Amino acid sequence: MAASSEEVLLVVKKVRQKKQDGTLYLMAERIAWGPEGKDRFTVSHLYADIRCQKISPDGKAKIQLQLVLHTGESTTFHFANENSALRDRDAAKDLLQQLLPKFKKKANKELEEKNRMLQEDPVLFQLYKDLVVSQVISAEEFWANRLSMNSVNHSTSNNKQEVGISAAFLADIRPQTDGCNGLRYNLTSDIIESIFRTYPAVKQKYAENVPHNLTEKEFWTRFFQSHYFHRDRISTGLQDLFSECAKQDEKGLKSMVGQGVKNPLVDLQSLEDKALDEVNLAGTDTIPLYKTRVFGYGTAATPSTSNSNRTVKENSNSAIIKRFNHHSAMVLAAGLRKQDPLNDQASETSSTDGNSRDSDLFQPPIKKVKLQEAIEYEDLQQEDGLKTVSLNLKKSDRYSHGPVPIQTQHYTTSQDIINSVILVQHEMANYKPCLTQVMSSTMASSAIVALSPGGVLMQAGTQQAINRGYLSLSLHPKMVPSEVQSELKHLYTAAGELLRHFWSCFPVNTPFLEEKVVKMRSNLERFQLTKLHPFQEKVQRQYFSTNLTGHLEEMLQTAYNKFHAWQTRRMMRKT
Amino acid sequence: MASEDEVSLLVVVVDVNPIWWGQQAQREPEFTLSKCLDSVMVMGNSHLVMNRTNKLAIIASHCQESHFLYPSKHWKAGDAAGDDAVSSSRDGKYEVLAVTNDQISEEVRNLMARTEVKGHQTDTLLAGSLAKALCSGQEMKSRILVIKAAEDCALQYMNFMNVIFAAQKNSIVIDACVLATDSGLLQQACDITGGLYLKIPQKSALAQYLLWVFLPDANQRSQLVLPPPVHVDYRAACFCHRNLIEIGYVCSVCLSIFCNFSPICTTCETAFKIPLPQMVKPKKKKLKPAT
């Protein structure tokens, strides 16, 4: 049965599985089902193995819950209790909904990691295809070194910036007319996410109602139809799904206003916006912020000038302004919510208390910082001056010539110099360009011959490059097509990877390394047979006789020689 | 074809070291400085004719100065000696080319005339000329062609490298056409900026090499079959012996290169600690108190 240490979270009786009655148990790490009367579980799944859960639609007679595993199998449970089947099923579903996400991430992470790495790096992917898929080496060997290398990188990339919410996201959902007096709203998942992040009340409503009472489509239709979404939010008291949301919003706004602004140097009270005909009953006394009605910051309206004096138009205007403010505040709050959980706690003590400004003893730290910033300038302060060591060059003349080897200087006597200069001056004194006789045609044609392909100046490059195995120079684009080039590059990458594994085994100290060396040698041989030889033959058949794979074969041969030497030494040691 | 508005500047830096050219005149009288300048002029004219918006600049790199042969500051129309002016414009040439050629020849005559012989200044001021060339090509797409005659001057190394990196930063291509001895500095310059380096086997055919290899600009070169790049020897020479080395020691303070390790850098006198292998200290046995 269940291990004694397992905590049972939920027990549901009268659950049928494969036409057998039984009981469903939800534990801390797994879900299990046992037939009635028996002591053991016939079905048990770890939450980590479950990919997702599905429930039968509401209209159906059978109330079922299906679990789909990562492997593709699925198990279906049929809740057969006449009275409480639906409730049972929903309870199980809710619990699973909470538990599954916790376990989901752990199992998949490795596979996801591997997939991600393969997708991000095409060279790695090619290497994987060349080596593992063609069974030159096994997958564990391939991943053995890489996963540890890249897990460090991954942790740093987690600090990606979160995408913020555009303040205009609601306005961007421009409805299109449906043709017959209706409106089509196009909702993308981005917009839905923005709505949920900005208005957690709506998110809650969604979680409560979908998919029991309403489908997603219905939910959003109701949302857009409701007065909550409408411009003039006059609470008509209709039994609307969202009237609660409206009340929550008002409460939220009030509390936000009550918190006030955390910057003590910003005095919102000084911003007053009085209409000409309004009597300033309060005079110039400052009113504590929490007593002001929530119709806009800093108005001098006292509680006595209530709704009755205001016209309908004023009411709706102030309602719109209120909604704008609330919307902007919610968008900002949603953006800051994840980033600043720590900052909030630090500064909470300072400004929520409305009387804090009166007491001099309790100076909010933020105010100090702000005042300090305003008073002091960094570059006017005393220079701390890092103690630096000055460069003390004894032989600075070395820099004048730099790392250049001595070149043999031709010694010229001063007489030579004088003679040469006079000669040139003489020559150039009567210089007149004679552009029709710059060179003879024989000279020109010999120059052209030297510059044509195969000429003196053109050959050195290709031969030199082929001898050294430089790909980019020797593979003149007209001579070797790019597919052959890229295949050769893949061969080099694959060979390099195998050789790296091989050479890292030396010196062979442990029995594990011995096995690995032997295995790598056979891998290299297999690679040579399956990949290198066919490529070489193809190239020789189709294109030309130059040896493109000479260097690769040389590297492999060196590895074989090393292995042979090591093996003979080992034999000698044994005998 | 390139767009009509793009201005493309070619700066030709000609090495007119009078000592070298004087000696050259004695070695090979058929190829002298005049012939070289003629070839350069042919190429300059061709460049101007290739496209209406092309521009040309020619700098003469001398031992005493770097002087702009074209465009010249002093030339005024009608100032030239009467006969010459008439003859150059008489042959019906495109006016721009006639003016260009006249300016160049006038400037070169003046430059050579004012040469003073000084024993210690025998090296071509190539780094300075390149720097001037870089400055002149700031507002437009430009490239530099260096026609080198005399040998490298090692003393200009630092300036030279700075000029090369500045050219690379500004995407200015440096090509080199070398007449006599190979120049390691120019090989590096061409390699770093993506230009062409060519040492020509026959000096007399200079014009042909210039027109074939160096006239097309960088965009067109990918479609032509041109001499392949040369293998550049990037090995540095150690500061102590000036031998070329492949593996060496670099002082982390003054960046001077040495072939052997020494505990004190001879250039900046910084002392370096050698990491010794861990010495196992013998454990001290506790002395038992004598009773």
Architecture overview:
- The complex is a heterodimer of chains A (575) and B (291).
- Helices cover 51% and strands 9% of the residues of chain A.
- With 575 residues, chain A is an alpha+beta fold.
- Among the domains of chain A are: 8-108, Pleckstrin-homology domain (PH domain)/Phosphotyrosine-binding domain (PTB) (PH-domain like), CATH 2.30.29.30; 176-258, no CATH class; 482-574, no CATH class.
- In chain A, helix 17 packs parallel to helix 19 (550-574).
- Chain B contains nine helices and ten strands.
- In chain B, helix 6 links the parallel strand 4 (141-148) and strand 5 (173-178).
- Chain B is elongated, with a radius of gyration of 26 Å.
- The relative contact order of chain B is 0.12.
- Chains A and B meet through helix 12, helix 13, helix 14 and helix 15 of A and helix 1, helix 2, helix 4, helix 6 and helix 8 of B.
Chart the SSEs and their pairings.
The complex is a heterodimer of chains A (575) and B (291).
Chain A: E1 8-17, E2 20-27, E3 30-35, E4 43-46, E5 50-55, E6 64-69, E7 74-79, H1 85-120, H2 122-133, H3 139-157, H4 169-172, E8 176-177, E9 183-184, H5 189-198, H6 200-209, H7 216-225, H8 243-259, H9 312-337, H10 341-351, H11 365-375, H12 398-401, H13 414-429, H14 441-451, H15 456-468, H16 471-474, H17 482-503, H18 511-542, H19 550-574
Antiparallel strand pairs in A: 1-2, 1-7, 2-3, 3-4, 5-6, 6-7, 8-9
Chain B: E1 8-15, H1 18-27, H2 33-50, E2 54-61, E3 66-70, H3 82-90, H4 95-113, H5 126-136, E4 141-148, H6 157-169, E5 173-178, H7 184-193, E6 197-199, H8 206-214, H9 218-221, E7 236-237, E8 244-245, E9 249-250, E10 257-258
Helix pairs in contact in B: 2-8, 5-6, 6-7
